[in-house]
Write the structure tokens for this entry.
Amino acid sequence: MGSSGGPGEAGGPEAGRAAGPPRLDRGLWRALGDLGFFALRVPEADGGIGLGLAEAVLVFEEAGRALLPGPLVATHLAAGAVPGAATGETVVAAVDGGLVEWLAEADAVRGDTTGAVPLRSLDPLTPLHRVPAGRPAPDPVAILLTAAEQLGTAGRVCELAAQHARARQQFGRPIGAFQAVAHLCAGILVRAETARAAVYAAAVTADPADIAAARILADEAAVRGARDCLQVHGGMGFTWESEVHLHLKRAWVRTQRAGGVTESEELLAAALLPETA
């Protein structure tokens, strides 16, 4: 599931064809635990890797690029607090903005799920439940790691659009030679690189306003980038043989996490307003 290719079996296009609700690959989850994905920020003295937020952002960016399924952020944040989360033996879900991802597959849930009802998820690889309980305050780290996943999607759809624009030919020329297609690809790249700078900077500063800005830019880069990538691909992008539509659907679902983009916009606006006397 490297960055140079499409997503593997756990998150690839064919996975969306499965009948019924998706099932979490426990072997994959334990493999991620063995690699230190969940224990990345747990101190070495407690059996973790002992790295920081910047390294976690890089890892979650690759997870987004590969369309890794599962409650990655919730389990990562639970490492060190919930037994088995750090090693991938325990799948942890969390109430987030009135929604819970992968509730039926979770071994532990953080938050009140009383009255949870299943929803038909737009993303076939992210089952959802809605809960009526109050919405907890968004965790800035959860916001940033989600932004990192969005950045991974933005980078991947940029690659896919450029590859298709070079390979697909019409009228004896690659479609990338046509100005309309070239402008679409350029826009995808500009948004992705702008978001990359913001996400990486927020990973270093960990400032709430920087994280809010990163989240806004990453959401836009992922959603608009995936939509423009679909435009470049035409009808091919909607087929199960293509991963493009899955990136768009996953990006749309991620925009609902951690209070949604509106909360980040309000936080950033408050930070930018001059202090009143």
Observations:
- The two ends are 54 Å apart (CA to CA).
- Confidence is low (pLDDT under 50) at residues 1-10.
